[in-house]
Design a protein that fits this description.
The chain is of the alpha/beta class. 29% of the residues lie in helices and 23% in strands. The protein has 13 helices and 23 strands. The strands form 5 sheets. It has a 9-stranded mixed beta sheet with strand order 1-2-3-14-4-15-21-17-19, sandwiched between helices. The two termini are 27 Å apart.
Length: 477
């Protein structure tokens, strides 16, 4: 009889893998770096995800389509959600398997009337999105991405700052020599939201005043703002009014990069939660056989502000796609059968967690934390303080999941976000838990989460991908 090991030790991935697995980790990381370097907004994430899905045979669902096992379909909602399905062999009423991840990240948005001139500079007025430390967004190069519509309702795509020949944009900070009052403030107050103003230019527009007198010349010296608008009009055919309703996001400029002499880590914008969304996307698109259960990956927007709005998971779009699939397979939607399907489904909230940072060890419970390079993180519950806002997975579900992952040689770890009363956070798990399905949080540990540039481990990313793919292919309870 084999001796049972009584203690549990979470080990470093790099100590446990062979050369082939090491190469898999490094290759996967290169594809991922390309993805997050291009997918810096939710719209771009959908665009890049769609490319990958189409290459793997996914086609857009048609309302009159009669689905059959093996079909690979997708739905897109307002260019900010993409939901993918592979139809399984089993009766859909017996449940499906779902991975849900978000593709929005903290950033700086423009206000509805953003452009103004002051002090011989032209600037954008902004409103930050999601939970950020505001001071971290000053004095770094920024890129602008998004869409605007002009008066002819022509969609104008904006993307400036990541090409080597592009200009970048900038939020200034106060010089140390004059920062006495600022330095006496808390970190939260040192840079206020209304000081996150983006510098966009400094040259005024001057009309041809060759034949005018000096007084007329002064009148014809137009503003820096009008010069910027002239540049934008010539390039994009837009005017100032077109900024009303525009979706322009300021994000860190530059590509994802390796970190460390050993290149084991990745520095990039938006690991939360594009690391998990990419792993989930690859998990479903890399499946080649017809699955037993129908599989679903939902990549959604607005998680960073509570999942509200018509592109967040709080909307009915996810449920609508399920109803379309159910109707196509069953011929009609019986509400009781539909609820039986949801009740029998299994889900993973594919979201990141906080990695242990030895520089700030005081906020972690070292016995219950996630370490870099120790694999995918399993979170029984999220929430804050007294588990407020948490989705709490059942013991039976977790037991089967951890034993399953171990049987697949997938390296995993378990813990909490931080010390109990230090803070906390939630994910989309509670929104799927309301359907009474079994669901748990599982994802990549991150350093400097919600900062402009975050860090993750290549090994943890790959173990997360393996865990998601194995869940979709083989996991059952």
């Amino acid at each position: 009889m084999e001796e049972i090991k009584l203690t549990k030790e979470y080990k470093n991935v790099w100590e446990l893998i062979n050369e082939e697995e090491k190469n898999n980790i490094l290759n996967f990381a290169e594809y991922y770096k390309d993805f997050i370097s291009s997918a810096k907004t939710e719209r771009l994430s959908v665009k890049e995800s769609l490319k990958i899905a189409k290459e793997k045979g996914f086609t857009e669902f048609k309302t009159d389509q009669k689905l059959k096992p093996g079909d690979r379909i997708y739905f897109i909602n307002k260019n900010k959600n993409i939901i993918l399905y592979i139809i399984g062999k089993n009766d859909i009423e017996k449940g499906i398997k779902i991975l849900a991840a978000h593709i929005d990240s903290p950033r700086i948005d423009l206000k509805p009337n953003p452009m103004y001139e002051d002090g011989n500079l032209c600037l954008f007025d902004t409103h930050y999105y999601g939970g950020i430390k505001k001071y971290q967004w000053t004095t770094i190069p920024l890129a602008l991405y998004g869409v605007m519509l002009n008066k002819e309702n022509k969609i104008i795509e904006i993307g400036i700052g990541d090409d080597q020949n592009d200009p970048v944009f900038y939020i200034s900070d106060l010089l140390i020599h004059l920062a006495k009052d600022q330095m006496n403030k808390t970190l939260a107050e040192g840079v206020s939201a209304e000081k996150l103003n983006i510098i966009i230019g400094s040259i005024p527009l001057i009309k041809n005043t060759e034949n005018n007198n000096e007084k007329d010349k002064q009148k014809n010296n137009l503003s820096i703002k009008e010069n910027i608008l002239k540049i934008l009009n010539e390039k994009y055919e837009i005017s100032e009014e077109d900024f009303v309703g525009a979706e322009i996001e300021a994000v860190p400029a530059g590509k994802a990069r390796d970190v460390g002499f050993d290149r084991s880590l990745i520095l990039g914008y938006g690991h939360d939660d594009r690391s998990c969304s990419y792993a989930a996307l690859r998990a479903i698109t890399d499946i080649n056989q017809v699955p037993e259960k129908t599989l679903c990956v939902a990549l959604v927007d607005k998680e960073e502000i509570g999942s509200y709005g018509n592109t967040g998971l709080e909307s009915n779009f996810f449920e609508y796609t399920l109803l379309e699939v159910f109707n196509s397979l069953k011929g009609e939607v019986n509400i009781l059968s539909f609820k039986r399907m949801l009740n029998s489904s299994l889900g993973i909230s594919a979201d990141v967690t906080a990695g242990f940072d030895p520089t700030y060890a005081e906020v972690h419970d070292k016995k219950n934390t996630y370490f870099i390079n120790k694999g995918v993180g399993i979170k029984k519950y999220t929430g804050s303080r007294g588990k407020s806002g948490a989705s709490d997975a059942n013991a039976e579900f977790i037991s089967k999941l951890r034993n399953f992952l171990s049987s697949k040689n997938i390296i995993w770890q378990s813990g909490e976000l931080g010390k109990v009363d230090q803070g906390g956070g939630g994910t989309v798990a509670f929104l799927l838990a309301r359907y009474n399905m079994e669901i748990i949080d599982m994802g990549v540990p991150v350093l400097s989460m919600h900062s402009p540039l975050e860090v993750i481990s290549k090994a943890d990313l790959y173990m997360t991908y393996k865990a998601y793919k194995a869940f979709l292919e083989d996991f059952n309870i």
